[in-house]
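Support reply, case 0932

Customer input (verbatim):
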Amino acid sequence: MTDPRPPHEMPPADHTGRRFSEVIKDAALVLPNIVVLIGRLMADPRVPRRSKIALGIASAYAVSPIDLIPEFIPVIGWADDILVVLYAIDSLVERAGPELVEEHWDGPGDVLALVREVMGLARGLIPRRVIAILDRLVD
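Our regenerated output:
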């Protein structure tokens, strides 16, 4: 059974003691850099076609007015968009390797650490059935 508390009230999910809402805020702060990263990855011929398709679909979902969680809800409203985009980047890292993503990253901090942290938290919050569907879509 899932915890009935909203994500921002969840106890720390990892060894750093950071909560889901803190991680999503950090991801939202580098969102402009993530947009640039996606553009560069889409233009790079070394990125597998399937990863480009996943990034394109994730980007379209993020800019779409149709969302699972409405944007007017602070922090959590952007969570689904951020999760979908970072999930596509995580999938790309699995396919093409972390070096390719690091090469195109010019934002602050370590984007791969952020992706790993968000995905680690998300896998604990998202039902396994949904994760399995997402995995099939990007494989």
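We compared this against your earlier run and they match. Two observations from our side: Residues 133 and 139 are 10 Å apart (CA to CA). The two ends are 28 Å apart (CA to CA). Please reopen the case if you see a mismatch on your end.
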